[in-house]
Amino acid sequence: MIIEKLLLHVLIVIAPVLSYSFLFESRKIGKSPYFLGILYGVSASLCMYFAYFNSGLYWDLRYVPLVLSIFYGGPISGIITLTALLATRTVMGGETLYLGYISASVACIVPFILYKYFWRFPPRKRIYMSIIAGLWPAIVQLLILLSYLYINSEVLQVDQDIYLYIAVFGIIQILAVVFGSILNEAVIERNLMKDEIRRSEKQHTLGELAASIAHEVRNPLTVVKGFLQLMEGEDERHKHYYPLILSELSRAESIISDYLNFAKPEFKKIETFSIAELVTELSILLNPYALKDGISLTHLIESDVKITTDRNQLKQALINILKNAVEATPKEGRVSIKLIPEGEQVKIIVRDTGKGMTKEQLSRIGSLFFSTKQQGTGLGTMVSIRIIESMGGKVEYTSKIGKGTKVSVALPLISSFEEDSV
């Protein structure tokens, strides 16, 4: 009987994830911690309502929705679920009501503490952390149960199956946490993939548009520039205008080249080189640019590795990222570059102590015409991300208002270029 009841609880535990995923995900309410807290609160209450009563205690998986609510919905969601859990237990009453309060109060401590570190880990480690957090309430319940049985020793004589119940309860609780965590991670991964597909489609459309416009504009610009160079020495009255006109034409050509590079990065010279040497070179190159604004630019190399890619294109992409970091940093601020080899890839981490960005600004990084600079177009960042992604790499931005921004560039040791980019 206990197995049937607890397996029903497993279905109740995963119901909020399925409800969120299929019914409310595309709506604004589906992303609210209050809504998730209510969903998991209902789940915990149903677990208690359909509990298996034996030996004076309720056997249920009420704490699994609580753990999942805290980890995947946040502290607000967790508090709502805990409130629903305590309210349901109060309504149920009974002589062991005080044990329910003690159990709930102690069981929620570890999940709330671990939540601070939860999102710093990759999905697999998050599942392991969920299992650890799910074991804690089970241990708390077991200790309270044993204490209760010890105090009421007559129960031990009546029901010798209690130890079997404990074993079954522990195993099914772990399984419920695992299923719940895996489903949550699957939903998160699916959302990330959908966002990535949307972004790729948008970039592809922008790339085709940029290429067609750039090609059409570049040809007349080249003709105009050629004739201006021919006329430069003929008219002495307007001689001082020519350098300015030619300079602006060169700038226009540079912008068009950036658009073409975004549409279809060209990797002309693939070579194997030391990434540490490139990072050192970038630090030396941009140090005067940083110092003129009183900004400290430092680099740290944990160990050197060699990578195979287009050195000049990678250098240009990293220069754009570093220049953005320097320009976002106030006087007396700091910009650092860190090189970390990780297995089959290498990470280049750029940190600044600038004003930081909001979540909305972070979500728009890499979009055309979005920039935190007054005169910026966002084109440099777009090109940098496009180049690195075409090399098989990945760029991640994290930021906090008032604390600065971190840009993490992950590159494979041997770049897997897109077919249309080589």
Could you explain the architecture of this structure?
By secondary structure, this protein is of the alpha+beta class. It folds into 3 domains: 2-197, Arp2/3 complex 21 kDa subunit ARPC3 (Orthogonal Bundle); 206-263; 270-421, Histidine kinase-like ATPase, C-terminal domain (Heat Shock Protein 90, 2-Layer Sandwich). 63% of the residues lie in helices and 13% in strands. It has 14 helices and 9 strands. It has helices spanning 2-24, 33-49, 63-73, 75-92, 97-107, 109-118, 123-151, 154-158, 162-231, 242-263, 275-291, 311-327, 359-363, 379-390; strands at 52-54, 57-59, 270-274, 296-301, 306-310, 334-342, 345-352, 394-400, 404-412. It has a 5-stranded mixed β-sheet, covered by helices on one side. Strands 1-2 form a two-stranded antiparallel ribbon. A two-stranded antiparallel ribbon has the order 3-5. Strand 1 and strand 2 (57-59) form a beta hairpin. Helix 4 (75-92) runs antiparallel to helix 5 (97-107) and helix 6 packs antiparallel against helix 7 (123-151). The longest helix is centred in the middle third of the chain and has 70 residues, at 162-231. It is elongated, with a radius of gyration of 30 Å. The relative contact order is 0.07. Mean pLDDT is 80; it is low at 418-422.
Count of domains:
3
The CATH topology of the largest domain corresponds to Arp2/3 complex 21 kDa subunit ARPC3
Q: Mind telling me which CATH architecture of the largest domain this is?
A: Orthogonal Bundle
* Mean model confidence by pLDDT: 80
Q: Outline the biggest β-sheet.
A: 5 strands, mixed
Number of helical stretches of at least 4 residues: 14
The gyration radius over C-alpha positions equals: 30 Å
Low-confidence stretches: 418-422
Shape: elongated
How would you spell out the order of helices and strands? HHEEHHHHHHHHEHEEHEEHHEE
CATH class of the largest domain: Mainly Alpha
- Helix- and strand-based class? alpha+beta
Question: What's the N-to-C terminus distance?
Answer: 64 Å
Number of strands: 9
Strand order within the widest sheet?
A: 4-6-7-9-8
* β-strand amount: 5-15%
